[in-house]
Amino acid sequence: MWRRAFCILSQRPFSSQPEIPTLYSFLQPSIFSLKRTQPPSSTTPTKPQDQTPLTLTQEHKSNLEFTLQTSINTNNTDEAWKSFKTLSNYSAFPSKSLTNSLITHLSSLNDTHNIKRAFASVVFLLEKKQELLQPETVHVLLKSMRDANTAAPAFALVKSMFKNRFFIPFSLWGDVLVEICRKNGNFSGFLQVFNENCRIASDEKLNFLRPSLAACNAALECCCRELESITDAEKVVETMSVLGVRPDECSFGLLAYLYALKGLNENIAELEGLIHGFGFTDKGVFLSSLVSGFVKCGNLGSVSATILRGLRETGGQGLCLGEGTYSELVTGFLQNGSIKDLATLIGETQTLESPSVIVERSVGYGVINACVSLGLLVKAHMIFDEMNAQGASLGLGVYVPILKAYCKEQKTAEAAQLVTDISSLGFQLDVATYDALIEASMSCQDFQSAFSIFRDMREARIPDLQGSYLTIMTGLTESHRPELMAAFLDEIVEDPRIEIGTHDWNSIIHAFCKAGRLEDARRTFRRMTFLQFEPNDQTYLSLINGYVTAEKYFNVLMLWNEVKRKISTEGEKKFKLDNSLVDAFLYALVKGGFFDAVMQVVEKSQEMKIFVDKWRYKQAFMEKHKKLRVSKLRRRNRSKMDALIAFKNWAGLSA
Rounded to an integer, what distance in angstroms lies between the CA atom of residue 176 and that of residue 183? Predict the structure, then answer.
């Protein structure tokens, strides 16, 4: 069927006129002579500069080969090259393995100078002694040329292979040439080599020269996209049929582009029949290519018709045209058509698209996303306005690219308003979009927009809120905004979708204490306990440190009384003192002069076998109560006197 689809054209002979530099032009100045050495004159004999004899003895040859092998092994490339040249100048070629080792070594160095050496060596051997060359060695050299982006010598090498009838499997050289051409954005040189290779494969029945599908498509791409030649394209198709290379969706897509460009509707219809005949069900590449071709020739009516027909065929499940195709479409409409035509096209597609269509597959998304990618955000807004003027309904796919653009440009206030509008229309964004918008808002410290988007997220009944919640809390912590953290936490604390723990409240309390806002910290602590979140050692440490900084030691005493009740009622299993908390309480209570409480802490620490460094509390006592006398306390408060005496005895201050 594939063979019958196109008329058979006669084989065109391989042109000897190169489209690339001649074989050795890139080697100037020459580093490897390819000319035959003239025999020395009998009257004026000359000597080589290195005093090499005119004929090599077996011993000299063996020495040179040994030097060559040793130099390769030790990466002494210049010495290896010198030995090889000496041997080759007298047609005393090294062994096959040694010859290929040298070329492979030169190719592996990835510098132009040694690639030139490897190239010159291969071409020389092709003409002089090609039986020494291994096909894999040619493959290695071509890959090095690909990596060095040297297209001209790569083509020259392949042409030299053909000229000298050195045929190796296509897989060892053809696909590398395709990569080189794609890297340089031009396949014209490859098409010439491709045609010659296929002629040889067909005429001489050399199956190993059969090109790969990728190579055939590269040749088709040259004919369809670069040359825009139907004759050349159909010749490649016929060659594929003769050599038994089965086409794929890409093959048909390239032809579809060319036929659309030329306005050959009958050929397009025939091509669609072939696609079905080959069993291809995904027509995404085919439709994208048709759209590109129609855009290129300015046939915008056919562009719209193709897209609408494609939607009908998919049952409204959207199209996969690709970003490149949409960019071509938008550019074509803006150059040859108008904003109104684009808006009309989107409106018509939305009437055909299913409500369950994937957002990224909707035509509206593709068009607006292309506008954004091309830096035409203003044009995207103009399309919005035109669609509203036409009374067309705006699908979610139209909004999402705008949101992404706002996110990228950190226009977070506009993004928050657009999210609200989207929610009011009954559309629901995905979690990733919400997360990205909230992260963008927090990164530029637009906290109100982040809160607004999170509210919309909650109202949209998104099940996974934890990621965005953590983003907001982390951002507020880093920005030192505990008052916003407290208000935010208070707002969402009862939402079962969000996992809130004691550590969240601790973050707020710590931030308030660090800022010296102790009343706010105390209020947060009370709110925390009211909502039945259990304070832990970190909660109390933050409060103690805050009170000590402000010298509010009585508040520390109140905290100790609460912790003491907690331990007595709940037991040590639920709340357990640790070294840090004991240290913080002791230091603060000593500073405050609450020695009765100090001894209570000491007693608890002894019960729980917590080590206490007394020196720190001696210092605290001497700094704050150096002049305090027991005799003064005896007259005022007997219990305080007893507590002071007990502390001094414990701390070693009784002397």
Answer: 11
Asked if 526 contacts 542 with a C-beta cutoff of 8 angstroms, the reply is: no
What is the mean pLDDT of the segment spanning 50-68?
Answer: 76
Q: Within 13 A of 330's CA, how many CA atoms are on the CB side?
A: 26
Instruction: Identify whether 29 is preceded by a cis peptide bond (ω within 30 of 0).
Output: yes
Average pLDDT over residues 375-393: 88
Return d(Cα 304, Cα 134) in angstroms, integer.
Answer: 55
pLDDT digits (tens, 9 = 90+) for 425-465: 888 888 999 999 999 999 999 999 999 999 999 998 899 99
Six-digit token string for 497:
């979708």
Q: Which residues contact 42 (CB under 8 A, 6 or more apart)?
A: none
Is the bond preceding 39 in cis, omega lying within 30 degrees of 0? no
Identity (one letter) of the amino acid at 617?
Y
| CA-based radius of gyration for the chain | 41
pLDDT of residue 608: 81
The structure tokens listed for 214 are: 């990728």
Q: What is the pLDDT of residue 450?
A: 94
Which tens digits make up the pLDDT trace of 186-243? Answer: 899 999 999 999 999 999 999 999 999 999 999 999 999 999 999 999 999 999 999 9
- H/E stretch holding 414 reads helix 412-424
Q: What angle do CA 168, 20, 212 make, to 5 degrees?
A: 35
- What's the pLDDT score for residue 439? 93
CB-based contact 190:178 (threshold 8 Å): yes
Please, which residues have CB within 8 angstroms of residue 1's CB and are 6 or more apart in sequence? Answer: 274, 277, 278
How far apart are alpha carbons 586 and 1 in whole angstroms? 93
In tens, the pLDDT along 483-537 reads: 999 999 999 999 999 999 999 999 999 999 999 999 999 999 999 999 989 898 8
607 has a pLDDT exceeding 60: yes
Q: pTM here?
A: 0.71
Joined together, the tokens standing for residue 66 give: 């040994």
Amino acid 652: pLDDT:
73
pLDDT over 80 at 159, yes or no: yes
The CA-atom distances, in angstroms, between 399 and each of 176, 307, 404, 433 are 43, 20, 9, 11
**Angle formed at CA 346 by CA 348 and CA 280, multiple of 5 degrees:** 80
CA dihedral 549, 555, 561, 565 (to 10 degrees): -90
Tokens representing 444 are 């530029």
- Whether the CB-CB separation of 444 and 412 falls below 8 Å is answered with yes
Q: What single-letter DSSP state applies at residue 225?
A: I
Helices 553-570/579-592 angle, 10° precision: 140
Q: What per-residue string of b and e applies to 173-186 under the rule 16 or more CB within 10 Å gives b?
A: bbbbbbbbbeeeee
Q: Is 160 left (phi over 0), alpha (psi -120 to 50) or beta?
A: alpha
Vertex 119: Cα angle to 114 and 125 (nearest 5): 125
Write the secondary structure of 248-291 as one string of H (helix), E (strand) and C (coil): CHHHHHHHHHHHHHHCCHHHHHHHHHHHHHCCCCCCHHHHHHHH
Q: Is 493 helix (H, G, I), strand (E, B) or coil?
A: coil
Amino acid identity of 474? T
- CA 426 from centre of chain: 33
AA letter at 546: G
Residue 395 CA to residue 651 CA, distance in Å, equals: 76
Q: Please give the DSSP secondary-structure letter assigned to residue 49.
A: T
Cα–Cα distance measured from residue 378 to residue 372, given in angstroms and rounded to the nearest whole number: 9
Find, among 341, 390, 427, the residue nearest to 402 by Cα.
427
